[in-house]
Batch of 2 targets.
Target 1
Amino acid sequence: MLIADIMALVAPPVTDLLRRSRSVTQDPQPMFPTIVAVRNDRVLATVSTLRVEATMSAATTMAVGLDPQALVVATEARLDDRPALTYAVMTRERRARWVVQEIHEDGPEVRFSVPVDGGEPRGQAAGTLRVLAEALGQRPVDVSTVARQDRSGTFGEDTFLPPEQGRVVVDAGTMSTLHERVAEIGGQVLYLARSPEAGRLALEAGLPRACLLAPAPPAAS
């Protein structure tokens, strides 16, 4: 998956997140540092907390439990004394990119430039990419070995869930763990199921309802 394709998926929800952070109160608040997991060419999950260190602590759990194609850490920053969004992008193949997107604010209106290559990362940016690379270097959970919970003991019955169902169950467990971890510090965890059926299965597997985002309905023909 190309970095440009990842950014095309990640930038819209991140800019929406920043806009919402500005509209919460009359006193504009900075956007929470957010880590985004991309899988199967779509945004799958996000974790946002007040502190970038707490957000980064989710990287390994997401890499192992969600098996993403890429992880992206988005933060609000000031570059050359101008507001900007920065994106630390790391793919499963350990291809890295530091991306910058300028923020233009005119009263209540917030606009964004096209994301561009931020050049050679240094300092915290380089450290963030190292953490993401280490996380994505971990072996993900094998979703073909998720045991069924509804076995009746019938001879020949499959011991494990089909991989597509096991995938959702592992996702749900991963997101539940992250939710428990960050809820205590005012963080937020969101999971976008691939379908309504997958969303129902995730809830049955223990995903907190507050974490579930329903997939967008199909476009009218």
Target 2
Amino acid sequence: AKWFVYIEADTSISWLNLLLLLKRLDSNKPLYFGAQNVIGETTFGHGGSGFVVSNAAAKKLEGLQQRDGKAFVEKWEKITSESCCGDEIVARALVEVNVHLMPAWPLIQGETVATIDWTQRHWCTPAVTWHHVSPNEIDTMWKFQKGWVDEKGWKTPYLYKDVFQHFVDQHIRVNRTDWINISQDWKFEKPSSADSSFEDSVSDHSDVNRGKPFSKLDEDEQRSVNSFDECAVACLNKEDCKQYMWEPGRCRLGRDIRLGRSEEKGGMGVRSGWMQDRVEDFGRSLEPCQPNWKFG
């Protein structure tokens, strides 16, 4: 084998884009690449996102095993039994033969179509992997790839922008009720607001109300918590805001485009919307879009 590709059961992989990527690389060089993660002092390719080891890199590791024999096996069995993660162990072993991870994000990455931030960092890059994907989503992505190959052949990669246009664009052209679109760059809420249905989608609460007393916010920011329409106005008044999310007493605004997910539990009435003209302007601003294969 020229290449060894590691993925997990909930990884969706584009064989088209993977094969086109590997054609650009030399398996006779000791290569190890994937989406970077860190545990302690070890930088490794995240297994759920997928990682790739070249034949030359694997042979270097095999050479070490042949040299050390039983001691090699005993050493790594012990280390593996004490570690949480097999992907981290692979990196530690490869480091011993001087093969270090080449970060390959965002070609290889760990988000889903629903959670990824659709930004300039991704837009013109071929999409190789997705993580935390359900069996149904894997099947849907496979059908998308098959349709792409049937139309364009095996020499034209599809980019993140193509995935966006196929899976996301149609769903964000309307406002959605009982929907969390993961807006998280501005967070406004009344001090008396009860528990939120979308609190778990916001990773950092330290910047609620921009760190100010609610009464010190701009007028449109204060009004944003009163209604979905006022939340939309607050987004409109911020030049780089592309989406918003509201429930009684809370408004969240986002710079990046995200699809998000349905949220019907609790009956809190979370609503989400997107600034259509800004979403369209964003896509147009990145044309013409040439495949970006750079990593490392």
